[in-house]
Amino acid sequence: MTSGPDCRLHDGVYPRDRLGWVRPVAQFALRRRWHVTLHGEDQVPATGPVILASNHVGLIDGPLLAVYGPRPVHALTKREMFAGPAGPLLRAAGQIRLDRDRADPAAIKACIRVLDAGEVAGISPEGTRGAGQWQQIRRGAAYLALVSGAPVVPVTMFGTRDPGGAKSSLPAAGGSIDIVYGEPWQMQPVTWPRTREQVGAASALLHEHLRAETARAHDLTGRVLPGPLPAGESTKDPGQGPVNKEHHD
């Protein structure tokens, strides 16, 4: 557990995890409801900046990413979650508030500060819950990799939404959840100014790597993703995620 000021994510200080004790308690609680198995934790570097890029199929993907990460994770979390009773806990745990309805430079800068401090940032490049098959990704993860030079570790979640389950549903109690960490992907950092073309090219390469690692995770576990959302539930994200226009910083 790290110590530091009471960070509000937009005050010029990167968010700090001040509730390190919560992770083992949450792991115990979650394992009482589901059988959670981790694979490939050694793919996550033990030190230095890391970006965890997770697919997004179920409601509990974000909490699982933060709770079971081999190192404390500062994950981009939609701002609506901070308005509810979980808000104080999320802030204390160092999660990063994200406005999905528009470009959010403050969230990106908070992630960069996390990486500059040699810590772990978590992101869902798909932008919203869906089939989890990487049909498309936002450019935020690639942008962070270009700025920081940090490795991007793919994370594939299996079992976090039952087949045919609604977007906001939880998997059935007693079910099995597999979290697979894949081979890191890394690029040399690009100094300012970073062009739209550079970010686009990096994002295309990362997209290919994420899809390949999810296929490898399927082969490793024998698990399959839950498929599309039920009819009438849109997979369209209201915004473009953390990067929907060029940031030059």
Description:
With 249 residues, the chain is α/β, with parallel strands linked by helices. It contains six helices and seven strands; from the N terminus they run H-E-E-H-E-H-E-H-E-H-E-E-H. Strands 1-7-6-2-5-3-4 form a seven-stranded mixed β-sheet, with helices on both faces. Helix 3 (87-92) links the parallel strand 3 and strand 4 (96-98). Helix 4 crosses helix 5 and helix 5 (140-148) crosses helix 6. The model is unreliable at 1-12 and 236-249 (pLDDT under 50).
Descriptors:
single chain; 249 residues; alpha/beta; seven-stranded mixed β-sheet; 7 strands; 29% helix; 14% strand; globular; disordered N terminus; disordered C terminus
List low-confidence stretches. Answer: 1-12, 236-249
Strand proportion? 5-15%
Number of helices: 6
Distance from N terminus to C terminus (CA atoms, Å) equals: 30 Å
- What structural category do the secondary elements indicate? alpha/beta
- Mean pLDDT equals 83
